[in-house]
Amino acid sequence: MVNTILKEADLFCPNSVRINFTIYQIETLN
User: Taxonomically, which superkingdom (predicted)?
Assistant: First the structure.
């Protein structure tokens, strides 16, 4: 489900999605 949302959003704003998802992963790991 998350992957589908990211893929759909990636079509509209790839840079923002990648940056936000990277920040989300970093915050989750910490």
Answer: Bacteria
